[in-house]
Amino acid sequence: MKTVGVLLLPILALTLLSASNAFAQGDKSYYFVAYFSNANTGGAPDAVLRLINDGDASTAQVEGVPNGTLYASIYTFDDSQEMQECCNCTVTADGILSESVNNNLTSNTLTGRQETSRGVVKIISTSSSDPTNNVLTPGLRAYMTHVQSTTNIPSKGPFFVSETALPDSNLVSTEQEDIEETCGFIFTLGGRTWGICSCTPEDYDF
Asked: Minimum mean pLDDT among 21-25, 67-71, 141-145, 193-197: which range?
């Protein structure tokens, strides 16, 4: 038993050291995905996407100079896997951006219809202000509320709300090129009017 204990101590020490290094390195994620449900549904509360700039991109600069600003490229898909809206929102260091699913992410679809009730939201953390040409830059953290119905009948409540931190996802070059190109098509077809989601003022929460 003593021998086993002696052997376990180094293993435990190495495990703790590895975990400590992992936490020290931080999470370098720049791509997040989430779902939304019961949007634009009578009697259902609005869901909210929250984005925080953790300051990872900050550098030593003189006071008064913008420092560590990132952008959230946001892409909204309906449940038919069609992109309906896209946009790019500024999030300064240590700032928080709160986006209403009903009013910011699904109210200005390319078709002009606010009928999307469920779908997918994809977010890229970028240092570019152009959602059709992202420069992948970690530093954003994403959270989203989810509106769930307590029945299996659409538009029937009561509803309850949960909130989760969005897990990081794998962004392959093919996927990045596809969503950027599709967003570019939306800009062209919608005349940079339709199909563009909107950004709330930073630090304005719901």
From this structure: 21-25
- Asked if residue 9 belongs to a domain, the reply is no
CATH code at position 67: 2.60.290.11
Instruction: Note down the domain range covering 37.
Output: 25-189
Look at the pTM and tell me if it is higher than 0.70.
yes
pLDDT at 155: 62
- Indicate whether 157 belongs to any domain: yes
Q: What is the pLDDT of residue 22?
A: 40
Domain count, the chain: 1
Give the contacts of 196 (CB within 8 A, at least 6 positions apart).
Answer: 85, 86, 87, 108, 186, 187, 190
Query: Does residue 195 sit within a domain?
Result: no
Is 17 part of any domain? no
Q: Residue 26 above 90 pLDDT?
A: no
Q: 3-state SS of the chain?
A: CHHHHHHHHHHHHHHHHHHHHHHHHCCCCCEEEEEECCCCCCCCCCCEEEEEECCCCCCCCCCCCCCCCEEEEEEEEECCCCEEEEEEEEECCCCEEEEEHHHHHCCCCCCCCCCCCCEEEEEEEECCCCCCCCCECCCEEEEEEEEEECCCCCCCCCEEEEEEECCECCCCHHHHHHHHHHHHHHHHHCCCCCCECCCCCCCCCC
